[in-house]
Design a protein that fits this description.
Number of domains: 2
Number of helices: 8
Largest sheet: 5 strands, mixed
Shape: elongated
Helix content: 10-25%
Distance between the termini: 35 Å
């Protein structure tokens, strides 16, 4: 039972945008309270089920039993995706400014030579050095390899004969980066996390 309740469910707002991932216990709580419906794909079409409809449909479905929650009186299919009935916004979150997020924004590539490196082989570089008034900000800090970092030193890129492969910008918050990279996520999530690929 504990293993089943630890499974994750993708949550959409009522505009069908992914906004969260919750455990099975929380998902069932939202369904029972009438705050959400189950989205289930059948023969290429998406069907919505409130909790009672989902309960009824579970009785007539011959699915793998590990995809069920067994109660005293029911077998209930485990939902993979639920949609909130009343929430239509996207959560607002700031991406924290720190080393790992800069490397992720820059795809672990040196922003001068363009080559990919392991995290341990990258440094942070102030494009406009601090002694030139450069700020420690998303727009002025980039990933750079040890060779390029040493070559540039405390100079401006053009003074070192170097150019950025792209302008550094503050990244937009990407919901579910961890989910998108999680190999255990359910394939039915792909349609909502990568809508262009799923359609």
């Amino acid at each position: 039972m504990e293993g089943i309740l630890a499974r994750q469910v993708l949550v959409l707002n009522r505009c069908w945008q992914a906004v969260n991932v919750v455990g099975m216990k929380r998902a069932f709580s939202l369904l029972i309270q009438g705050h959400a419906d189950v989205i289930h794909q059948e023969e290429g079409d998406f069907q919505l089920y409130d909790f009672n409809q989902w309960l009824d449909s579970s009785e007539y479905c011959e699915d793998n039993t590990r995809d069920y929650l067994h109660t005293v009186s029911h077998f209930i299919r485990l939902p993979k995706v639920i949609i909130l009935k009343f929430f239509d916004r996207l959560p607002i979150k700031e991406v924290k400014f720190h080393r790992k997020n800069i490397f992720e924004r820059d795809s672990f590539r040196c922003q001068y030579c363009g080559k990919a490196f392991k995290e341990s082989e990258l440094n942070l570089d102030h494009v406009i050095p601090r002694h030139h008034g450069g700020r420690t900000s998303w727009e002025n800090v980039v990933a750079s390899c040890i060779n390029c970092n040493s070559r540039k030193a405390d100079r401006l890129p053009h003074e070192a004969g170097m150019h950025l492969i792209r302008k550094p910008l503050k990244p937009k918050w990407r919901p579910f980066v961890a989910v998108a990279e999680n190999k255990h996520r359910h394939r039915s999530w792909d349609y909502f996390l990568n809508p262009l690929q799923g359609r």
